[in-house]
Design a protein that fits this description.
Elements: H1 12-17, H2 28-32, H3 53-91, H4 100-110, E1 123-135, E2 148-157, E3 165-170, E4 183-192, H5 195-202, E5 206-210, E6 214-218, E7 222-234, E8 240-249, H6 255-259, E9 265-273, H7 296-300, E10 307-309, E11 322-329, H8 346-353, H9 359-363
Antiparallel strand pairs: 1-2, 1-7, 2-3, 3-4, 4-11, 5-6, 7-8, 8-9, 9-10, 9-11
Length: about 375
Amino acid sequence: MPASARAPRRSPEEEEEEPPIKVAKITKADEQGEGGERGPKMPRTRPRRSAPRSYAISEEKEEEGGKEGEQEEEGGREGEQEEEGKEEENTKPSPPPKKQHQQEQEQHEEGKGAEPQDPTKGIIEEGRISFFYRPKVSVSDPSSVQDIQRFYILFSPSKKEVAKARLAIVGKKRLPEPSKKERIFGFIEAVSDNPEQLIKSSLGEREYETKTRGTRHLQAARAVGEGVYSIVEHHGKGGHTHLTYKLEQPEQPMAVQEDLKISKQGSFVFQVKNPQNKPPTGGRDPGLEEKAEFSEEKQEEFGGYAWIPVRDSQLLCTERAEFLMVGVGEKVGEEVGELAHDEDYALEEMKREGVVESGPVETGEWK
């Protein structure tokens, strides 16, 4: 074949730019044709040198490995996204739990609360309550709160196995005002199994000696009211406790009861103080200098808090135990029941023996 008919020789740059051409091996039979005649001579092209077999195989493995690695990376990313999604779900704030009274109301509306609610549910302690005041030493005929020395509350539980009788002294010489949500402190003066014994030993007439004025005469306390009380827990364990009462004697508050803020009925947030709580640096503890001493078991109930609800009324069965009352209302619910009046109860006993004056509770006037 003439030289002009041959394909021009290509440069290495042109060979790299174009894709390689696969060339089959040409035999003599192919050159001669089927009839044995020699056919036209095919132009020769320089085949591109392929990489060694071992190198080509390693390239294929690397490509496969790269694809697998990409798949693993994609799978890892998907796993990370799933974990991030789970973390986001876990870190999302859960909706606040519904309050107990809301749940009960919803159940009642849906018809699920078919059983009647027990009105005594949540009652920690109940019994009879009496109010007293003692005039100042120099005042024979008191006429206002300024003329009294002490204001007392006597708690007499109906179940003596639950708690003992306690005589408490209340600050400001009266009850808190509910309309102002007033806070008044108090403490347990004496504890006994017998409420009459408390009255005789702590509220009766007596004398005492002083270094500067000699013998002093302390007048007997005056009874100013009597009724029933309950210590009640509200809104479950996470809530608070109330001291509630209903006045029975007198039937309606009069002048002396109004001055002492003793209403027909009342309700107070009720808390007990941790005697081991320390005031802030530089602060002063306004409470008693001599603190209550609880058993180790009772002290653990405070859990490091300065004040806790009175869920365990036995915390008030320790002398010098301090408590807080916050006035919140003059209406109480069914948690304060009607306890049967005992003729041998405190005020009746006092009237017979003359331990204390009963005039204010009968007439409603200062005496």
